Amino acid sequence: MDKIAKTLKNISNKVYIVEKWALMIAVIAVTAVNFVNVIMRYIFKSGLAYCENLSLTLFMLLILIGGNIAVKSDSEIRIDVCRFKDVRKKNAFKLISDICSIIALVCLLLGSIALVQHTAQYNQQVATLPITYLQLYSLLIIGSILMLFDHVVVLFKHLAAIQTGVEEEAE
Q1: Helix 87-122 vs helix 133-164: crossing angle, to nearest 10
Q2: Contacts of 151 (CB under 8 A, 6+ apart)
Q3: Which of 87, 72, 97, 93 lies closest to 171, judged by CA?
Q4: CA 81 from chain center: how many Å?
Q5: Per-residue pLDDT at 167
């Protein structure tokens, strides 16, 4: 179990590097686009037509990457209803939480797939951007898969911690 957890963690760490760069580029881009649009509105009394859709697309990307990084670092928002002093019980409770999260992510993935299938029937282009809604909504599937993968990594990490009976290391 520990070997599987380490292998999955290595893959996840390599994806994490790409995600950090994509997140940084997306933050810079969304800041620049919104800044330019605000300046255009105040100086020329007219904004750029594509800025709103580009901002929404970049925000969607930021949310998906940020959500995945939160899953990866096991720092999602949660409320601790029960606190256990015993390490095995604490890790078992985390395991139950992981399973619930995985079920929710599978539902999100299935909903995203249904949305993309429905969108594929009509495949309209975003009005002001040179992309289609199919491409845009496909990001939901990619983000869901990345979050699901990282939750499986966290699940195996918690399983290994239960098996060894040792407190998992903080990242």
Answers
A1: 160
A2: 71, 98, 101, 102, 105
A3: 72
A4: 25
A5: 66
109 φ/ψ sector (left φ>0, alpha ψ -120 to 50, else beta): alpha
The label of the residue with tokens 């990594």 reads 153
Alpha-carbon distance of 64 to 67, in angstroms, equals: 5
> Distance (Å, rounded) from C-alpha 124 to C-alpha 134?
8
Helices (H), 45-169: 51-72, 87-122, 133-164
pLDDT value of position 41: 87
How is residue 129 annotated by DSSP? S
pLDDT < 50 regions, the chain: 170-171
- pTM beyond 0.70, yes or no: yes
Q: What are phi and psi of 82, to 5 degrees?
A: -125, 140
Coil, strand or helix: which one is 125? strand
For residue 157, give the amino acid letter: K
* Assigned token pair, 12: 């996840």
